Amino acid sequence: MKPALTSRDWFPKVAAATLPGAGLTLGVIGVLGCVSHGDVTPRDASGQFLMWLAALIWVVLLGTCFLFRSGRQAWLSLVAANIIVWSAYGLTRMLLS
């Protein structure tokens, strides 16, 4: 039987969603910006889309961080996701340059 989800480790979970979550959000936006050849100017439609998407991704991470079983699992999962996303960013920058 699975243990029930609790708010026992709420601070490490929120900290994991805040710190590595910010890096993960920026990495996803970077990959999408490279793939879509988005312009960096905030007045363009692609720039606006990426800015609003960043807010949405980070809010989703903050909202779902409590679904992890522990703070340690949240940190490990989000750091691993950061490594994957930033590796993908480096690869797309290398291939599209």
UniProtKB/TrEMBL annotation:
Superkingdom, natural source: Bacteria
Alphabetized UniProt keyword annotations: Membrane, Transmembrane, Transmembrane helix
Transmembrane segments: 49-68, 75-96
UniProt-listed PROSITE patterns: PROKAR_LIPOPROTEIN
Name of the molecule in the record: Uncharacterized protein
